[in-house]
Amino acid sequence: MQKQRLDKFLSETTEFSRSRIKKLIESGHITVNGIKAEPNYKLKKEDKVDINVPEPEKSKLEAENIPLDIIYEDKDILVINKPRGLTVHPGAGNRSGTLVNALLHHCRDLSGIGGVERPGIVHRLDKDTSGILLVAKNDKAHQVLSAQFKDRTIQKTYLAIVKGNPKKDEGTIAEPIGRHPVNRKKMAVSHKGREAVTHYKVLKRFKEYSLVELKPKTGRTHQLRVHLAHIGHSILGDPVYGKGNAQLLHAYKIKFTHPRTEKELEFEAKLPDDMLKLI
Question: Which InterPro entries does the UniProt record give (predicted)?
């Protein structure tokens, strides 16, 4: 312990994540021998560490009685089938009608790690993407699930209906993704971007489109939409990277380790009616 960093030691011996510990240290809520310290302070055997956790900031968001399609729930997690068109969390000029508003009505004991604007939100789906979303109901569950996402041990499978017929029945798209050089609201394949890898498999071919299974290895913003558009097979209805306003991309399956029981769990979310009809 003598040479261990303060932030690392506390993240291993308390229920708080390392990022949360760092914020508490920097705000002066964690002291060493009564003095404000740095996150990289090297602890000595006789040091006295005090933690004064401030009262959590109260959310100004309204709880709203918005129906939720709950696939699974226990005291630690929720697994939800999110409909297309539902925004996950509030943003500028969008304070209501989101999944977070619905979650606040459904349960009051959500994880606070995501902040007052994103309680319980471990990962996200685009507004126009439907399917499985994991929600943490306490900080410990949030911390464990976030670590699984970071380590890429959570397996996510998507189904999409794309324009045209890919030449290969299956393959891998490994192209870095970054902010679009002109339109800053879009993402694009860019040599200056971050690593992005998508595995795909054609499940069924039709005359003008194909049903494709997608397994992202990384989780970049708009990754699947950008990668498919890059190879000339944009997702049908994609309003940004294709044409239309009813994007046919669905987070179909998720596989992860339960944060408390450590059992491997797998869930599926039924396809939206319009995708089923088109197939």
Answer: PsdUridine_synth_cat_dom_sf, PsdUridine_synth_RluA-like_CS, PsdUridine_synth_RluC/D, PsdUridine_synth_RsuA/RluA, RluA_PseudoU_synthase, S4_RNA-bd, S4_RNA-bd_sf
- Rounded Cα gap, residues 268 and 277, in angstroms: 19
Domain boundaries along the sequence of the chain: 6-51, 70-151, 157-247
Non-local CB neighbours of 85 within 8 Å, separated by 6+ positions: 127, 128
Q: What DSSP character marks residue 123?
A: S
What CA–CA distances, in Å, run from 33 to 25, 43, 72, 248? Answer: 13, 11, 46, 57
**pTM score, whole prediction:** 0.77
Please tell me what DSSP assigns to residue 222: T
pLDDT bracket for residue 170 (50, 70, 90): very high
Choosing among 3.30.930.10, 3.40.50.150, 3.30.2350.10, 3.40.30.10, the CATH entry for 70-151 is: 3.30.2350.10
What pLDDT, in 10s, does the model give residues 101-143? 888 888 866 766 555 556 778 888 988 999 999 999 888 899 8
> Is residue 246 a contact partner of residue 83, using CB atoms and an 8 Å limit?
no
20 pLDDT higher than 60 = yes
Q: Given this model, what pLDDT does residue 13 score?
A: 79
The residue-averaged pLDDT of 256-266 equals 96
Q: Which of 76, 126, 128, 238 is catalytic?
A: 126
**Residue 77: CB partners within 8 Å, gap ≥ 6?**
134, 135, 136, 137, 141, 145, 258, 259
